[in-house]
């Protein structure tokens, strides 16, 4: 370690300390550990205790940190985090910080020999975590979704002002729940850019809460969520059995609701079927509007396929569109997956998109029976894909290949079964629920940045659909 670089980082800390409260400094900056500085690409590597810790720095202090770095190193510095993902096994993950648009050194007023400060350095704008491609324009209306879509558009235009608060959407997998709630958030952000809109999956919320408990920063976690104007939580059925997570969400919900903030929730089942959820939370879920999203009927499936073809510039014969719509089991995901596969086969094999090709793709891409996937099914497919024996997955070995198969298996089990994390952990090597949550979070983050890995996981998922 170059002591001069460490000294420059220590100087950064002093600058930061002058611009935050002592409690903020002790909570969010004292735990940071200087790792290294690369002169070749001017990159500073800092170790932070958890993913939630990293997210909080990015949300509230990134502009302040970059200002201090520029001031101390006298140059523009790239910032990377080394996140401690598993303290017991000393596992870490390196991620790049998001550079703010305005990182130039501010021009402070003269303060004699005192060090400069940043005025209004925090907080910065909140990243809403929305998928900008999932909009009302691409959410095709039909008989099965007319009410939820109409209400959702009304909420987006007048968040927190209607009787539709909370807005609880439920329906089977593939019916468009995630698309709809994203569309509400995107439209709301377009109309009210100053509002703090946040989309979060129930799983990520639980991971963040678990990290906050470990670091004894639960109050900070709650305070952050209580600043949101439009809170969108997806797949809340995953909280079933997670009592502490639900209790914490209750306080957040109550605070936002009293202030007239908009709350949007999505689940694969109605509130009455959320077994294990306390009555005080169920009554709050039900006090606004509960809307069901049904699987799209045949005509809506055809409309969705035609819209996708038009949007992507694809040419698929009418009889093939009809055939896909009739065999895709009313799942929007299956519809889009079949079209994507058709085009891939057509390009690779230089063949026309016709009924014969469609029949081949349907057999490989659409699950045509109702046999539910089991943990054994998932382990068989994942282990087969990577060529790893199941006993290695169940072992305590930390070998990279075994850990990867274990994490992917846990992620797919969480996605395709209704088992709680604790049960999944027991069936995959006797792990606890926190290991499952960490594995799911790790896989989700890698899917966002690693296209090759994403293709591997998609290939495994497609293999599930061959099972009869």
Describe this protein's structure.
With 468 residues, the protein is α/β, with parallel strands linked by helices. It has 20 helices and nine strands.
Structural class: alpha/beta
Shape call:
globular
Q: What Rg, in angstroms, do the CA atoms define? A: 24 Å
Gap between N and C termini, in Å?
58 Å
Low-confidence stretches: 104-124
Q: Percent helix among the residues?
A: 40-55%
Secondary structure layout plus pairing:
Blueprint: H1 3-17, H2 22-28, E1 33-38, E2 43-48, H3 51-60, H4 62-73, E3 78-86, E4 91-96, H5 146-157, E5 167-170, H6 177-191, E6 197-201, H7 202-215, H8 218-225, E7 230-234, H9 243-258, E8 262-267, H10 279-285, E9 289-292, H11 298-312, H12 318-327, H13 332-348, H14 355-365, H15 375-386, H16 390-394, H17 400-416, H18 421-427, H19 433-449, H20 451-464
Parallel strand pairs: 2-3, 5-8, 5-9, 6-7, 7-8
Antiparallel strand pairs: 1-2, 3-4
